[in-house]
Task: inverse folding
């Protein structure tokens, strides 16, 4: 197996990761592995900004549109899928290129996760039968640390914390100590850090352009009566379109609210990127530079060959 360092390209939503990754894949003879927790699902290609068919045709892509919405993809499962992809790619003499904005996935790959014992069917069924509010109250009563870290309406993570507590007698926080070891490979991490105001404008513009198709896509998804705790059901744009379809918002209000949520998400991602993975190469750039894609690729290439 090749032991060339594996590049990981991180960046906030709408920062240009897809365009950069395709150019890098072509230059490196690489294949792209998705590290975005929403783009791993088969549903909602448009609203999750998955690469479109024309973009996918320019380089081989993995772990995009892979899972049905009903399957929750934990960080551990993503790591297992990514490792299998990396091994298969390298066995063919190609190079993996990991791209995405889900920091927990990337941290799990590079730093590792503490092992949590499997949850029994009985414990899982009992916890999953609880409404989100009841699950949060139960967690708050017995695990104040995790309850303080989670939003009461984040049913998926609240139930996961409660499952671990009831299965092991320990707080999930006790397993998140940062003492685990990541994959024994060399990674080279790169952070895309565009100008904040320009990034927000790109977020607004991209969502406005995709909005007509997103409306059709989300309406078809909601017609399947998805569970409210499925990650895709809470993806930015889906609750806002659901409110529009229910007559609670008009179309412009729904779009503006989704744009605001997207900008807020981009802001959180930028903050996370600046405070994590200090070993990564920061790539600050301006969209006003006509050569910004080429310049980013040149920086990455130079840092992979030193």
Result:
């Amino acid at each position: 197996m090749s032991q060339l360092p594996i590049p990981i390209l991180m960046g906030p939503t709408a920062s240009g990761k897809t365009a950069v990754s395709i150019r890098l894949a072509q230059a490196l003879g690489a294949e792209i592995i998705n590290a975005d927790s929403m783009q791993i699902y088969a549903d909602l290609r448009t609203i999750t900004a998955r690469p479109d068919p024309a973009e996918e045709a320019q380089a081989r892509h993995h772990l995009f549109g892979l899972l049905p919405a009903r399957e929750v993809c934990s960080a551990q499962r993503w790591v297992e899928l990514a490792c299998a992809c990396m091994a298969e790619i390298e066995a063919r003499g190609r190079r993996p290129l990991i791209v995405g904005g889900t920091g927990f996935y990337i941290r799990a790959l590079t730093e590792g996760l503490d092992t949590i014992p499997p949850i029994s069917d009985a414990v899982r069924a009992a916890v999953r039968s609880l409404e989100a509010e009841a699950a949060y109250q139960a967690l708050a009563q017995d695990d104040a640390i995790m309850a303080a870290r989670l939003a009461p309406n984040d049913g998926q993570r609240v139930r996961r914390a409660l499952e671990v507590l009831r299965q092991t007698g320990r707080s999930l926080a006790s397993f998140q100590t940062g003492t685990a070891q990541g994959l024994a490979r060399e990674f080279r991490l790169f952070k895309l850090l565009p100008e904040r105001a320009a990034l927000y404008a790109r977020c607004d513009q991209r969502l406005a352009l995709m909005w007509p198709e997103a409306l059709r896509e989300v309406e078809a998804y909601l017609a399947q009566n998805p569970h409210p705790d499925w990650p895709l059901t809470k993806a930015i744009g889906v609750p806002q379109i659901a409110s529009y379809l229910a007559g609670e918002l008009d179309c412009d209000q729904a779009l503006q609210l989704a744009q605001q949520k997207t900008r807020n998400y981009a802001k959180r991602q930028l903050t996370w990127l600046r405070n994590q993975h200090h070993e990564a190469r920061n790539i600050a750039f301006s969209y006003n530079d006509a050569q910004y894609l080429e310049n980013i690729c040149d920086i990455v290439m130079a840092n992979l060959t030193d």
Summary: The chain has two domains: 6-113+180-304, 121-175. Residues 167 and 213 are 43 Å apart (CA to CA). The chain has a mean pLDDT of 92.
